[in-house]
Known about the structure:
Elements: H1 18-35, E1 47-53, H2 72-80, E2 82-84, E3 87-88, H3 94-103, H4 130-136, E4 140-146, E5 173-177, E6 189-190, E7 193-194, E8 204-206, E9 233-235, E10 238-240, E11 243-245, H5 257-271, E12 277-282, H6 304-325, E13 332-338, E14 381-384, E15 392-394, E16 398-399, H7 403-410, H8 425-428, E17 439-442, E18 446-450, E19 453-456, H9 465-469, E20 481-484, H10 500-514
Parallel strand pairs: 1-12, 1-13, 2-15, 3-16, 4-5, 4-12
Antiparallel strand pairs: 2-14, 5-6, 6-7, 8-11, 9-10, 13-14, 17-18, 18-19, 19-20
Helix pairs in contact: 5-6
Amino acid sequence: MKTRPTTSNTSVLSRTTGRTTVLFFAVLTALVAGCASPTPPPAAKPNIIVFYVDDLGYADVGCYGAVGVATPHIDTLARQGVRFTDAHCGAATCTPSRYSLLTGRYAFRNKAAILPGDAPLLIDTAHQTLPGMLREAGYTTAVVGKWHLGRGRGKIDWNHHIAPGANEVGFDYSFLLPATGDRVPTVYVENGNVVNLDPADPITVNYQQPLEETEPVHSDSLKMKADPQHSNTVVNGVSRIGFMKGGRRAHWVDEDFPHVFNEKALAFIDGARDKPFFLFYSFHDIHVPRMPHADFVGKSTLGPRGDAIAQVDWVVGQIVAALKQKGLADNTLIVFTSDNGPVLDDGYEDQAVQRIGNHVPGGAFRGGKYSAYEAGTRVPTIVWWPAQVKHRVSHALLTQVDLLASLAALVHAPSVQNIDSEDHLNAWLGQDTTGRRVMIEESFTLSVREGRWKYIQPFNGPMPTWMDNKKIEHGLSNTGQLYDLEHDPGEKQNLAGKLPEQAGRMQRALDAIVAGQKAR
């Protein structure tokens, strides 16, 4: 690690007069000029790690108010870095948020939605991406964990190399779940190839209809019961969405995720010796099915959901400890955040509702995953960089859409040509307390934030009644909604009728952004 140059003050203790003074300083100047070191080079580009947790709510970790689960490693990042109170993922669901973070584009521009496990690649390989930008800036790049952004260009043959995928959008290395844990295929894919695939036992996947030899789901053989949507194919005692046969030697074991992903992440860090690195550590936790390793079962009072949060904390601690051991910590920038708000009942009977106790996953905010209300996208967000970032709590308005432009500014990459991503590096580093002036929150409808104000535009589609069954407040209405979050963070009092001019102005601002105009 490079040390900063030191300077010293020279005191002239003797008094001189006239020509003696002039001669003394002339000699001194010559000596200093002859002995001066060349101007030190700029600090090395930092390593960058994004810890991207799945379905982690605003108050699901200790430093944001969690009850019933301890997160000491995450809390340490917050205590030493910047903890944000008004930072947002791109959307209230997984795939759109991941698309927005990696492309710097609002997901609605590509009609991004939750994908099936056999969907084609959602990201246009011609578009600039966060990993692609960093690779051009001299970084070696990797993604480990959950993907859920599709791969290939059509019907996927899982028995051969699958492209395009993560490697074609800027990642030098990828080790992934193709979609997510509750969907088939239940295999790891490394650099486009299924790991441990047996050619004599080929994989077949179908999301439309059952396959021959698909075994019926018997609830008495499952580790946990599931709803009908999640009851197609059983792997590792867990039923999943979609039909799959074959590939038995390649099947994952859910409980091993944290150890498998850490092994791959640490191997990547070990191998990134000559360049700065970017690691997108994309957790499966705390998404369903929640299957924590035996080491974490019972670590919380919240059941498997809380135990999975404790498991996330352990993973963070292991990676940070490795950075410190290798002397990399001081010059590593970590962003810890989530892809959307919390959900308790999401298809499996894992006691998340029954064991919630006094824990409130969304904190003071209404809604959660899928919801247009604030807890849908307002997520825990921490930035840690020992060499550059000082501890503070920031109320700046931020969106993950801006990570592309902001990190481009950090590494002095060419300016980003992107209609949505803005450079708010100073806010991300805790130096600017304002951040965004205007931004969009995506759910089943669009909302716009401007300072204390939030406007949810009318929703004209069919109401998703399945969210009512899961006791999720969707926040959808056929009329506009206006909230003053400074005085009403729980979005209980709709002011659109009382303040029609403000509501109308924000609807026009939203329309302008959708039409492709920069929000200024």
